[in-house]
Structure formats: C-alpha cells, structure tokens
Amino acid sequence: MAVLEVNELKKSFVSPDGERTVIVDVPRFAVDDAQQIALQGSSGSGKTTFLNLIAGILKPDSGDISLAGQSLSKLSEAGRDRVRAQSIGYVFQTFNLLQGYTALENVLLGMMFGRGADVTYAKALLERVGLKDRMNYRPRQLSVGQQQRVAVARALANHPKLVLADEPTGNLDFHHATEALKLIREVCREQNAALLLVTHDREILTQFDHVKSLAEINNAAQPQIAQITQI
C-alpha cells in the first residue's frame, strides 16, 4: 500500500520581472509503506520545493497529493498543518532547531503540534540517537553531528508514517554523514516509517536500493533550471 501518492502535481513561481517558471511538474510518484527511497537532484532542480509540497508547506498550482489515503488538496492550510504534524517527520539540512531551548525541549515542542508532549518518549528518542547525556544542552552547546541527531529525534517524535529528509547530511563531514544516514534509516525501520530522502551526494545514493532521479519524475527538472536558485 502506498503511504504517499502524487498525481499531476505542478508548482510554478513568478520572478520579479514577471516571468513564470515551472519548478515542479510530476505526473506520477508514489512511496509504499515503510519503503526507503533516495531522490537524486542537483541544486535548483526543484527537490526542496517538491518536499515542501508533499509536506503541505507549499500549496500546488494543480494536482493532488495523497498521504495515507487522505488528499491534501482538499484541506485548508490549517488542515495541512495538522496532517504534517501527525503523519510527516521532516529532517531539514539546516536542522531548524530553536536555539533558546534544550535538545529535550526541541523534541517536546515538535510533539506539541502532533499527539501532545510525552516526556518519557522524548527522552527515549534522544537516548536512542545517542544523546542521553546531552538532553539539557542547547544547540550551540552541541556539535553539528549532535544537532543533527536532535533533528532526527524531533522528526520521529510523532510516530510519522513518512519521513522527509532534505540533504540531511549536507552540513556534515563524511564520517558524521555516514553515521547520520545510518541512524535515520535505522530509526525509520524501527518505527515502520517510510523515508524519502533527497540528495546530490553520490556516496549517499549508493547506500539505497531504491534510487530515483528527480529529472525522471519531474518534467520541469531540465538543465535550464539548474541555474535557478534553490527555492
């Protein structure tokens, strides 16, 4: 069964000079329950826009996104926010941690938008990602690799059906990138969550059995848009 189904999805943006450019044009795409897919795409190819459409952060111009059988196109912005909080975990390249809060508080805040704060489970997640002794540290007191682990714990905090990861190893060196990827994949398997990870890193791509090129699924991902700043 597909946890994610995308049909005839289109999204364009208008430049300051009024020119409209199509960034996403995906006729069909699907992710099955618990499946792990790596999506290859260069900077500017629309991969971040594609993930943000799936997450309900952006609204498409046309088309439909169905998450666990629920159509996002029929929901209001508030409705999409609820679905994202309850069913999607998002690991951002820049982590997006709140600097004034501890690792534990960052995970708990993520829970507030879903099923509600669960201190016991939040602590268990942080312990699972190797931060048992760093729960009360703020992001600036953590290494880059440790901040990524907090981001992973937060993404899994609401038992999502689908985890989206946007260049999750982009800010890490090779050693920490390998560790972070292994952690993300292991925790997704443990929680029976599907994973859709986008990257341009060939070393990362070789570790996935299922690899797709954004150019293959996205009619808009042509060479000419490689010069567009990633949105």
What does this structure look like?
- The chain is an alpha/beta fold and 231 residues long.
- It has a single domain, classed as 3-Layer(aba) Sandwich (Rossmann fold), CATH 3.40.50.
- Helices cover 33% and strands 25% of the residues.
- It contains 8 helices and 9 strands.
- The strands form 2 sheets. A 5-stranded parallel beta sheet has the order 6-7-8-3-9, sandwiched between helices.
- α3 (103-112) packs across α4 (119-128).
- The model is unreliable at 223-231 (pLDDT under 50).
SSE layout and pairing:
Layout: E1 2-14, E2 20-32, E3 36-40, H1 47-54, E4 62-67, E5 70-71, H2 77-87, E6 88-91, H3 103-112, H4 119-128, H5 144-155, E7 162-166, H6 174-190, E8 194-199, H7 202-205, E9 210-213, H8 214-217
Parallel strand pairs: 3-8, 3-9, 6-7, 7-8
Antiparallel strand pairs: 1-2, 1-4, 4-5
Helix pairs in contact: 3-4, 3-5, 4-5, 5-6
Note the main attributes of this structure:
single chain; alpha/beta; Rossmann fold; five-stranded parallel β-sheet; 8 helices; 33% helix
Give me the CATH fold name: Rossmann fold
The CATH class name reads Alpha Beta
Strand content: 25-35%
Distance between the termini: 31 Å
Shape: globular
The overall number of domains is 1
Mean pLDDT level: 89
The DSSP helix count reads 8
Please identify, by name, the CATH architecture. 3-Layer(aba) Sandwich
* CATH homologous group name: P-loop containing nucleotide triphosphate hydrolases
SSE string, helix = H, strand = E?
EEEHEEHEHHHEHEHEH
The main pleated sheet reads as: 5 strands, parallel
Main sheet strand line-up: 6-7-8-3-9
List how many beta strands DSSP finds: 9
Gyration radius, in Å: 17 Å
Helical fraction equals: 25-40%
Low-confidence runs of at least 5 consecutive residues: 223-231
Class inferred from helices and paired strands: alpha/beta
